[in-house]
Write a structure and sequence with these properties.
The structure is a single chain. By secondary structure, the protein is α/β, with parallel strands linked by helices. 34% of the residues lie in helices and 18% in strands. It contains 14 helices and 18 strands. It has helices spanning 20-27, 64-74, 93-99, 117-123, 139-150, 162-165, 198-216, 218-223, 266-278, 291-307, 309-316, 325-336, 360-368, 411-423; strands at 2-6, 32-36, 50-51, 61-62, 79-90, 104-109, 126-129, 183-184, 187-188, 243-248, 252-253, 259-260, 283-287, 319-322, 341-345, 357-358, 375-380, 395-397.
Length: 427
């Protein structure tokens, strides 16, 4: 496989790839890495590759002519031309695996304030970014891509399976690694790793990879493929099962801002219960101080359990009606031995302004850091939860937002959307 780096600073690239695994692969002829300098395609005595931007603004922009000429001097129909830029798609292991199947990668490094957009339009196949931060140029990103892609090529790594077991190889972060000494400052290597039971070691490593990914990268954990025999005994992996949702009918505000008690509906009882079952939640609570309304909720749930088939019966068995939010908190505290993290939802940024706001990913990370503690998410009815009357609230889940200013989802729709953002598996 061949890599060509288009850069005005080849001295940043060549030395960085001369040692280690990649250096040995280059020396052994397994891969080839070369550079081409756009300054060699200029026609003035200063070898100018940049100019001032049209429309004004700070800095300089890399010119079309030398960049395109440099790319065209090395690219063939079999080449994949990649621009390294903060505006590109974030690099991940899936992209690395795809690029490893190419015969020739042309890695184009921008500098200054960026490159003339016409370069991307005329001479680039895709744009890639290392992440949401800015570097002085694309050279470090080019080196990172060469290293990551080269590792997947046959003959580069001494042990071919090493790439499969590293972080992201199976969609997860890598499990913890240990070597001698056995005891270092009181930190002992896990006993199972020295027992010689390879099946048990594989199970331990899989479990630790799942735990580490769930704690540190819940977004990655949600997308990771799962295996039928995956261990589920790690507390970091059971966030959904210790998450409870409550549909609150009091205290609620109406359109005038007055505190009221709203009436429950059959659809809310039924549909939210099905969402709770789908995402494996610990329970679904209906909060209303009106005894007749609680009896109605119990009646609706009982009817669906008797007449709705086995799958609906399981979902509706999760429904509990109680008089107040405090009753939910008390029951969860008794059940789990710890008070729940109480999170409120709202469609308005003007509500619960004194509380920290978290995205679904941040919220899952917060509760993963507290193994065993339950999570209680409150959903309002009417015109929303009365923010001044829920002192137990600790966090606010960021409101659902779309490209339009219209934001009036039904509560059962909002519950489904937020549960999917919290616990859904990406496809």
């Amino acid at each position: 496989m061949r890599f060509t780096v288009v850069t005005i600073l080849p001295e940043l690239v060549t030395p960085a790839l001369s040692a280690g695994v990649v250096g040995r692969a280059i020396a052994g002829g397994v891969i080839a890495v070369d550079t081409v300098n756009p300054r060699d395609f200029t026609h003035d005595k200063h070898r100018t590759v940049d100019d001032t931007p049209y429309g004004g603004g700070p800095g300089m922009v890399m010119k079309c002519e030398p960049l395109v000429a440099a790319i065209e001097s090395v690219a063939t129909p079999a080449s994949r031309r990649i621009l390294l830029t903060p505006t590109g798609a974030p690099l991940d292991q899936a992209i690395v695996r795809r690029l490893a199947n190419e015969a020739h990668l042309v890695l184009v490094c921008g500098r200054y304030e960026g490159i003339d957009e016409r370069v991307a339009e005329l001479a680039i196949d895709e744009s890639i970014s290392l992440g949401d931060f800015v570097l002085s140029g694309g050279e470090i990103a080019a080196v990172a891509i060469v290293d990551a892609v080269a590792r997947l090529r046959p003959g580069v790594l001494g042990e071919p399976t090493s790439a499969d077991e590293e972080s992201f190889g199976a969609g997860l972060l890598e499990y913890p690694q240990y070597t001698r000494p056995w005891d270092f400052r009181g930190k002992i290597v896990p006993e199972i790793l020295a027992g010689g039971n390879h099946a048990a070691i594989r199970k331990w490593r899989r479990r630790e990879a799942l735990r580490r990914t769930a704690r540190r990268r819940p977004d990655l954990f949600a997308r990771a493929p799962r295996e039928p025999k995956d261990p589920i005994d790690a507390p970091e992996l059971d966030v959904a099962s210790r998450t409870h949702i409550a549909l609150v009918h009091h205290p609620i505000v109406d359109r005038t801002g007055a505190v009221v008690t709203t009436a429950l509906t059959n659809f809310d009882v039924h549909d939210i219960a099905r969402s709770a079952q789908t995402y494996g939640l610990g329970g679904y609570w209906i909060v209303t101080p009106v005894a007749a309304q609680r009896e109605k909720a119990d009646h609706i749930a009982r009817l669906w359990q008797e007449e709705g088939g086995e799958h609906r019966a399981d979902a509706l068995a999760r429904v509990r009606a109680v008089p107040a939010i405090a009753d939910v908190i008390a029951e969860l505290t008794a059940r789990y031995g710890a008070a729940p993290l109480v999170v409120v939802t709202t469609a308005s940024n003007a509500r619960f302004t004194s509380l920290p706001r978290q995205s679904p990913r941040e919220l899952v990370g917060s509760i993963q850091d507290s193994p065993g503690r339950p999570l209680l998410i409150l959903f309002g009815t009417g015109w929303g939860l009365a923010d001044t009357l829920i002192p137990e609230a600790e966090r606010v889940l960021l409101p659902i937002r779309a490209a339009t200013p219209w934001n009036h989802l039904s509560v059962r729709s909002a519950v489904a959307v937020l549960l999917d953002r919290l616990f859904g598996l990406a496809t």
